[in-house]
Design goal:
Order of helices and strands: EHEHEEEEEHEHEEHEE
Largest sheet: 6 strands, mixed
CATH superfamily: Endonuclease/exonuclease/phosphatase
Distance between the termini: 7 Å
Radius of gyration: 17 Å
Strand order of the largest sheet: 3-4-2-1-12-11
Strand content: 15-25%
Helix content: 10-25%
CATH architecture: 4-Layer Sandwich
Structural class: alpha+beta
Oligomer: single chain
Number of strands: 12
CATH class: Alpha Beta
Number of domains: 1
Shape: globular
CATH topology: Deoxyribonuclease I, Chain A
Number of helices: 5
DNA sequence: ATGCCAAGTTATACTTGA
């Protein structure tokens, strides 16, 4: 089975590239982030025509997450237990969707950006990650053998090597100690990064500005974290930087994991 | 060996993004 995660940066603007990418990638489950649309605006028919079931969760032009599956789609949830609220009035944003696909509990996650050090959005981000850790720990406490995949855009570069130049990120979010600690807490709760061992030195995101992609100045911020039972099934992983090329690309590349 | 920022709104400036 092949699972992928991709911050598509608008499902509507990218629909032709999304369809073409699915057609050539032989993926069974696709987790999308930043679909930037409401449920009724998602190109559900285009995806169904490819043989995939669709679960989408979007409230507005912001955020938006989805799971596409050709190996079943059961028990869809549109927030994780304890997911923090944001906004006025405070509400759970469309940043998480879970579904069981081919026996794997898949969560498509779009972690809050954090904006800048000291910004309330960073406190929200850290709280969001802490509650995700608690939820993830509780799932494994209930069943340590369950196959759970926490995938998506984590908006964290956990290691210095995950950005092209740490000096550029001095006093920035994404690399701060609290964010990295929040990420490691989820790893410590029983979720391993199953992609890094197969993709050393590679990035998953390149800013649209300043020729970041051709200059190979990117970040690794998109991850597939797998429970032990899931990690034990992983036979390989890749980052599809080809998809970052050309006109109309998302600023993120798809991340792919193969399971035995 | 890729191409000089992009997407959305009720717009023609602004927010968000990382």
């Amino acid at each position: 089975m092949r699972i992928a995660t991709w911050n598509v940066n608008s499902a509507r603007a990218r629909v032709d590239r999304l369809v073409a990418w699915i057609e050539r990638s032989n993926v069974d489950v696709v987790a999308l982030q930043e679909t930037k649309c409401k449920d009724e605006q998602f190109p559900t028919d285009r995806v169904r025509a490819l043989g995939y079931e669709v679960a989408h969760h979007g409230h507005s032009q912001w955020n938006g997450v989805a799971i596409l599956s050709r190996v079943g789609m059961a028990d869809v949830e549109t927030q994780f237990p304890g997911q923090p609220h944001w906004g006025d009035p405070p509400a759970a944003e469309a940043r998480a969707i879970g579904a069981t696909c081919g026996g794997v509990r898949v969560w498509s996650l779009y972690v809050p950006n954090g904006r800048q050090l000291g910004d309330p959005h960073l406190a929200y981000k850290l709280e969001w990650l802490a509650r995700l850790r608690d939820a993830g720990a509780s799932w494994l406490a209930q069943d340590p053998t369950s196959e759970v995949a926490l995938v998506g855009d984590w908006n964290i570069a956990p290691r210095d090597e995950d950005v092209w130049d740490m000096a550029v990120f001095a006093n920035s979010t994404h690399v701060s100690a609290p964010e990295r600690a929040a990420f490691e807490a989820i790893v410590d709760a029983g979720y391993a990064d199953v992609v890094r061992p197969h993709t050393a030195g590679q990035f998953t995101y390149w800013d649209y500005t300043q020729l970041r992609f051709p200059r190979k100045e990117g970040m690794r911020i998109d991850f597939v974290l797998g429970s032990t039972a899931l990690a034990d099934r992983v036979t390989g992983a890749s980052i599809d930087r080809q998809e970052r090329k050309g006109k109309g690309a998302s600023d993120h590349a798809p991340v792919i994991v193969d399971l035995a």
